[in-house]
């Protein structure tokens, strides 16, 4: 039996993060080693720098998006690198050019994360080219070698994609399953009598935010990769259907939300609830097991747990409680939902060992609607050229702080590696205070600890072979954790940078470590001052708008649920996806608000209650979706009560006058005779919407939103 820690290690070693890190490490080290052997280390280092910069844009997503970003990056590196080295003797001209580039490339955030990564890559080359010396031809060689190194990495990435075309999709899908399993395991703790609801809700909100991001990445990769969406291979069909069922399973898991404090009070002997906790936790464990199998390319043919006997035990216990006069209707609903989750899980398992069926042609065509083409128009850029845009404020902040730091290092500080200050600033400064502060803390802590590790290695392992071995290990680990745990990435990145310099300037040693730490502290301080004083951006001043978008998404999901047809489900699924995106956006904004200064956290408890209520409402709507049979109309009483919920939500949205999202109308085609929805459940939904309305009124009176 493989231990839990061994599974974690295997999953990490075969994850997208580690395999991408190996690719990046090979791309960076190969030219450096070749030219080191040829005795022209400087050429190798410059080529490696180009490879590093282009690798920044090679993040998870469809290969055609990655390819285009890398090609644009290569061209941009040459142009900006050439201009930088030509004008670098002219201090003031260079300062203005630096500020202009910082503004322009930071504004690329408006086009998404990949474009933002491209901006960081180009600014990295610009900063490292500030101190290039020599003749014009020697300086231009810097730009040429940078772009050549980037081209080498592009070819390496293209070759990797040809050799293992499905591996990125497998890794993302497996990671998505693992994180969904962790989410379900968190949900199981609500049935524990000792749980702290506030802490657990915050953990769940954080996990939902992370999971929504992973789902979107997976959706984009699967639905925009032609070979997969056209189901041209059995592997493509398996990946596609597994993800579709996983999203449906996630919806089922959100539908298990109830008023847990009432359930725990009612069944306070703990035994029955502990059975529910155990089964739900095992469902999460099952998904983690399945996701690990997909990541590690191991066939997981059958579940670890047999859930049917466990569910039957739960049913018997509920029947016994009911015979004793207790109302167990709420837990019976949970049990029904657990059966649905188990059935969905069995379907995903079946894809691992049988031939996955093909999707209907119309359904396959609909998938592209879920990942619309990104808006790369110039008009979007122009639209954000205003101080009311958070992207504009961020770009101005980066430009002004970098220009001030540039003048400081060239007129006052005058240290050989002072460009580390500018590098620290462009890496740390993010569009919001909380993200910047988090990066700031992690950068400083990682640099100091990494500097200590680097000092120990240089002192106790002076041999070139040992230093090279540590260099490779630290590079792989630094790039592995770059997207998942930045502080750990910096912890390994600092000694790897110091080891690189130990090959270039062996005599630097302790002085280099000291300067690295001091420069990081200066850059971190500059970033902190900038984000506090230059166009500060606080979550509490923007959160009303995010809340309004979340409410509209809930309203449109309610409409989609009531209009769901067995033949036409794309509208319903699109509304569900938008609900997940907007809910995650709201949860993320709330978490960021908690890290800001207390004086800026306006009505923090009200925001918390609002977030919890929207989470609860989305769960009730998911439950409602399970209760309404497709193509079967609701009774007149059910329609009246759902309309009441709809109009209360509309009334709540109108409390946010700046919102201009499209609000769908609710309509019913006919009246049914068979009742589908319990009255007490509809009452719960209505009560939740009423509570949301009250919180929105309080927020509207106390927060001056943007």
* Count of runs of 4 or more consecutive helical residues: 28
Helix-residue proportion:
over 70%
**Total domain units:** 4
What is the 3D shape? Answer: globular
Secondary structure class reads mainly alpha
The helix-strand sequence is HHHHHHHHHHHHHHHHHHHHHHHHHHHH
Q: What's the structural blueprint in terms of helices and strands?
A:
Layout: H1 4-13, H2 16-37, H3 41-56, H4 63-87, H5 91-106, H6 113-128, H7 136-163, H8 167-188, H9 197-223, H10 226-229, H11 234-254, H12 260-266, H13 271-295, H14 307-323, H15 329-351, H16 361-366, H17 378-383, H18 390-413, H19 419-428, H20 433-460, H21 464-480, H22 486-504, H23 509-533, H24 543-562, H25 570-594, H26 604-627, H27 636-653, H28 679-702
Helix pairs in contact: 2-3, 2-7, 2-21, 3-4, 3-6, 3-7, 4-6, 4-7, 5-6, 5-18, 6-19, 8-9, 8-11, 8-13, 9-11, 9-25, 11-15, 13-14, 13-15, 14-15, 18-19, 18-23, 19-23, 20-22, 20-23, 21-22, 22-23, 24-25, 24-26, 24-27, 25-26, 26-28, 27-28
Give a written overview of the molecule:
This protein is mainly alpha-helical. The chain folds into 4 domains: 1-163, no CATH class; 166-370; 407-536, no CATH class; 539-702, no CATH class. The protein is built from 28 helices and no strands.
